Amino acid sequence: MKFLNRVDELAMLRERLGSDRAEFLVVYGRRRVGKTELLARLASEVRSFYFEATDTVAAQQLRDLTDELARTWGNELLAAQPLTSWDAAMTAIAQFVGDERTLVVLDEFQLLAVQSPELETTLSRWWRTTGRHLPIVLVLAGSELSFFEDKVLAGSLYGRRTGQLKLEPFTECDAALFQPRYSPEDKVRVYSVCGGVPYYLDRFTDDRPLSRHLLAEVFERTGLLHDEAELMLRQSIADPANHIAVLRSIAQGFNRNNEIVQRTGLAPAHVTKILGSLERLGLAATLRPITASAKAKKTTYVITDQFLRFHYRFMEAARSQLRTSALAAAYLEESVLPALDHHASITWEEICQQYVLRHQTGVTAVGRWWGQVPTGDGSRTEEREIDVAGVDGTRKPVAIGMCKWTASDVDFDELNLLDRIAPFIEGCDGTQRRFLFSRSGFSRRLAAHAATDPLLTLITPADIYDRAGK
Asked: I need a surface site. Which of 56, 141, 388, 464 has the fewest CB within 10 A?
C-alpha cells in the first residue's frame, strides 16, 4: 500500500526517537486507520523490535514473541528456549536493547492484555525499575479505543507513559492524495464512501471511474470491502445485531432517539446503551445545536465512519440483490448511483464545517445549528437549520453558512435564507462571516455581490482542494 501523508505524526515520533531519554508512548486509533503502516515505517528507519500480537492464548502469544525476538536479535539460545512469562519477556527485551537506542513496538497490545491480566502491572513495574533507565522508545499500540482510553491512558499505566498519539483518519484533502487525478467533485464522492481510512482509499485508485471501484470493491461478493462493515463490528462487539439495527436506522435518516426506538423496536434504555457503545468505538456521535450546552436534550445522532454510513445506507438492505455480479451491477446502476449525490451531500456538509474550522479566525468549534424560526404566519414557527456554524470559546457564533450539493448553481435564494435564519441563532449579531458552499458554483450576480460584501465568502470543491495543495 502507498504510504502517503502522516507527516506530522512521523515528525512527532521521530522527535521522541531522537531524544536522549527513555520514552513510553501509546499509539492508538480505530481499525484500518494505518497504525501498523506508520509504526512499521518508523521501525524500518531505526534499530527496532516489532511484535504484532494475534488473538490466541497467552502461551502462544509468548511463543510468538520469543520467535520474533530471536529472529530479530539472532539469538540462538532464545530460539531454543521459549519465554514462559511476561517478566521473562521484558527481561529479554531489556537485554536486546542493551545500550543502543532502540524502538520496541507491542502492536495490538489489547490482545495481550486480555489473555494476560497481569501484563499491565508487570509492565508498569518493569518500566519503573528497568525500562526508564534504558535507551528505549517503547510503544504500546492498538485499535480498541475504549481499552486504550480507559485501561491504558487512565488505568494502571497512567503514570508511566511519556506521551500518546491518537491516530485519526485522514482529512478530506489528505484522503484525496490517493486520487490526485479525480475531479474535486469525485474526491468528495470517494470521501463519502471511504472516509479518511487509508485501507479503503488505497483500493479507489484514479485509473478507473468511481462506479467501477464501487462494483468491484464493495457490491460484488468477491470485493475486499463487501463484508468489511460486519467484520469490523464483530472485532469489537461480540453480538452486533442490535448495533447494526441502530446503525441502519441512523443511516436511513431516522436519527433521533425516539425515531431509532420506533424503527428498531428496541427499548429506549437499550438504544441509549448501544449509542454509548458506538460512540466509545468512534463509530457514532451525538449532535446538538452548536450553540447549545453539552446538557441540551435537543440531540440527533450521526454515523461518524463514512464507510459504515455508506454500507448501511446502500448495502445491508440489498443483500438479495447482490447474489451475482450481474445483479450487483444492475443494483449499482439503478439504485446506488442515482442516490450517491444525496448521500455525498452529508459528507459535503462535514467537509465544509472542517473548512471553516481550519480557515476562519476565532472559530474553536464547528457544527450544525437548528431551532425554531417564525414562519411569518402569525405566531407559528418551524424548525430550520444552518449547515455550518462556527463558534468561539464562549459559544458565540463567528461564522455561519449553507451547503448545497446539487447540479445547479447557487443564487440569492440561499443567501436570503441564511440571512433570514441568522437572527434567531443565539448570539448572532450581524457581524458573523457568512459562507455559501456549492458543488456547482454560483450565479454571476451572486458572485458579483460577494465581491463587494466583505462578510460573504463563496466556496466550491475546487476551492477546498486547490487551497489545500498550495
From this structure: 56
